[in-house]
Structure formats: structure tokens, C-alpha cells
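Troubleshooting log. The previous structure file for this entry was overwritten by mistake, so regenerating from the original sequence record. Sequence copied from the archived sheet and checked twice against the printout by T.R.
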Amino acid sequence: KQIGHTAEQIGHTAKQIGHTAEQSGQHAELQGFLEAASEPWVEHFTNNGRSSPSVPYSLDIGPLHKQLHLSWTRPPTNCLVVKKYHDSGVLKKFKMMCIWLITNKGLDVFVEEKDFEELQSIKSSDLPKSSSCENFQTLSTKNLDTEFIDLIDHIKVWKDGKDKLNNKIDFIVCLGGDGTLLYASSLFQRSVPPIIAFSLGSLGFLTPFDFKEFPTVLKKVLKGTLGFTLRNRLDTTLWTREEAGEEEDDLILPESHQVLNEVVIDRGVYSGVCMVDIFCDDFFVTTVIGDGVIVATPTGSTAYAAATGASIVAPSVPCFIIAPICPHSLSFRPIMVPLNCVLKCKLNPDARGNGLVSFDGRHRQEFTKKHVVEISASEYPLPCIDREGSMQDWFNGLQHCLMWNGRSAAQKPIDKKGK
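Regenerated output below.
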């Protein structure tokens, strides 16, 4: 009996050793993936991405080996607040957020010029009472306008297209929906500071936080107790040939964009089918004949690509999605390709009409036989703060926003007493 008991203990110890080795292997595998796939991001977030050598955050692997955590090496000083366009209901919350960041945390708040003008138009009497928001009672509602005037020196106004934010912002607060997050991403064509997104839009798949809890959320973020998800972006370049029919080496006038959701090439106003040739690592893959084609990220798999029947992909999966739009073929299914591929799209020489190309729904322009779109993985992913965890937030978004696998009634159990 003693020998059997000892053998059982040895087997249990061996299992523990094997489990520990497996966890170490997973940790090493994840570390290797981060070094291989995100090394430029880490580099740009530590030194090279900013003019200042002291960036206040770094990338850490959490205790679960799968959760990424944001560590502050020094207290942040600057915050960019981006709000939803043309929504009067967001204005009051926008002003509340700016005042709280300045008075409670001593931060300098950056806002757009047009938002600053709207900010001054909101009276303190229009703001929600302090009881509607935790920890907002530090401001007296009676003298709020006077206090706001005193805080003007901490509000920095910037102009889109004229002022650069890359060397100034420590983190971003988004007040709006998924479109607001896309816009905030487009403001940073290199490294992007961490983004905290509060759901004040229509869908909110990418905005996990409720505005009512913003003091608690921001305190946790500034303490470094919340994790985040690295959402891959596409590095896209639109090349133009001086004359149709010239060689690839004669491509000129490049136009580059960092894309979070997708690149779309469609037939535009042309009534016929669109013919787009797709190349992968300079190897011809296929010709899309239909309404167009979408090249999407995993983040974009729940956007336009979902309407084509493409797979919904978790944001941490390193891949591209190639999804045809209404293809004139019964066998053309959307596919996923590895993130290390370089894709090129251009009109087929036999195409009868031009198309249109857009990047995250912006910069929409004519796409002719003189154009080539080159798409590769960006070195600058988007760090989004998680509410509960990367996968938890993703599944919550699928179920609550997209009603994934939802049904009106559950199946009734079998009545064991019945016959």
C-alpha cells in the first residue's frame, strides 16, 4: 500500500511538472510571437516612436500568459479626448470628461478646434448632476463655469492636418461609437497611444465601457490594472502609374494609410462588374469578378466583411481576410491568409470600367488601371484597453451587439415524468 501511495504521489508530481513545463512553453511561445510580430510596435512605443526618450508606458505579459498589461513608467501628463461628430447628447459628457481629467488627475487635455468651440458653448447648468457620475462631486456645480474658465490653460487645441500628435499624447479617450474609434486610429499614422473607448454611439462593438463608470475605469487604467488588446492594422499604399501600361518599377505618387478595418475596392457608379486582380507576394492568385473585393483585418471581420459572409475572426489572430463582394461565381468563398503576406490589388487589363477605393470608409477615390494598392501588416497596431479581457470583451460584443447565436426561446427539457 505504501509503495502504491508513493507511486501515486510521484505520478501526481510528474503531472504538475508537465503542466508547469506546458505553461512555460506557452509563455515562451507567446513571448516569441510578440518579439516576432510586435517588435516594431514595442520599439516605437519605448523610444523610436516619440521624440521624447521617456515614453510613460511599456508592454507586459500578464500572469495568465495571454493577457497584455499596460505598465506606466511615469504618470501620464497629456490626454487626447475624441468625441462623436454631430451628436448633441455627447457634448455634455465631453465637457464633463475634460473637467474631470484636469481637476482630478492634473492632465493637459487635447481637443480638436471644432470641439473646443462646442465645449465653450455648453453651460454648467446643462451638465448632469454630480450624483449621476461617481467621484465627480469634487467639482461644485454652482461655480462650474468659473472653474472651467480657470481650466482653459490645461486645454490644448489642435488642428487636424496641421498639428501632429505623435509626440504629445500619452493616452486617448474616445466618446462615441466604432466610427469614432476608427477616426481616432486614423489620426496616428505611426505608433498609437492606448485607447479607452466609452460607448456613446449606435453599435459599440469596439467600445466596451459605459460612460457612467468613467472615473473608476480611468483610475484603473492610470494604475495599470487593466489589460489591453493589440488590434492589427493594415499598412496600405496606393501607387499611381504615370501612364497606363508602364512597368511596375515606374509607379509614382504613393499615398499611404494605416487601416484598422478594411480596404474596399468596388465598382462605384459603373453598372457592370468590377474585375480586380489579386497578387500575394507577387504571385497571381485570382481575378475577382463581381461588385468588388474587401481586404480586412480581424477587427474589420465584424464590419463590412461580415456582410459578405466572411468568417468572424478574433482580434488576436494574425491574418488578413479576402472577401469578394457579390462575386459572379458560386464557388468564390472568403479566405484568410497569414499576416506576413504582401497583397497587391489592381484592375484587370480587360476591365471595362473603373472602380472606387476607400480606406476605413475614408479617402474614397477613383481606382483606375493606373492604380495599384499594396497591403501589408502594419508595424503600428492599435492598443485598446479591455473591460474584462480580450476574449471576454470579444464574445460579449458578438452576443450583445451582433446577437450572435441568439434565439427567442430556449429548447424545453424532456419531462422525465412523462411518457
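Residues 2-37 form the longest helix (36 residues). Archived copy saved in two places this time.
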